[in-house]
C-alpha cells in the first residue's frame, strides 16, 4: 500500500500542484467555482479589514482579524491544491491508458485457430 501512495504523491506531482494552487487564485479562474469564489471574496474583504484594524480598533482586534484571514487563505490554497492533485492524477491516468492502448498488440483470430 505504501508503494502506491508514494506513486500518487511524488515530488513532481506535489510541486506542480502547489504551483497550480497559487495560479488558481486568479479570480478569472476561481469564478468557475462559485463557492470558492465566494470564499475568495471573503478572504479579500478580511485582508482589507485586517489592514484597517492596524490603525483602528473599531473593527475588532488585529489578531482575530488576522487569524480569520489566514484560515480563509489556507482554505483557498488547500482546496486549489486538492483540485490540482486530482487533475494531475486524472491526466496521468489518461496518459497511462493511452500508452497502454498504443503498446497493446492486437491479433486477428482466423477460423482455423491461427492468428494473424
TrEMBL record:
Name of the protein described by the UniProt record: Potassium-transporting ATPase subunit B
**Species name for this entry?**
Dendronalium phyllosphericum CENA369
Q: Where is coiled-coil annotated?
A: none
Q: What is an example of a GO molecular function annotated in this UniProt entry?
A: P-type potassium transmembrane transporter activity
The protein's UniProt keywords, in alphabetical order, are: Membrane, Transmembrane, Transmembrane helix
InterPro entries linked: P-type_ATPase_bsu_IA (IPR006391)
Cellular component (GO) terms are:
membrane
Give the residue spans that cross the bilayer: 34-55, 61-82
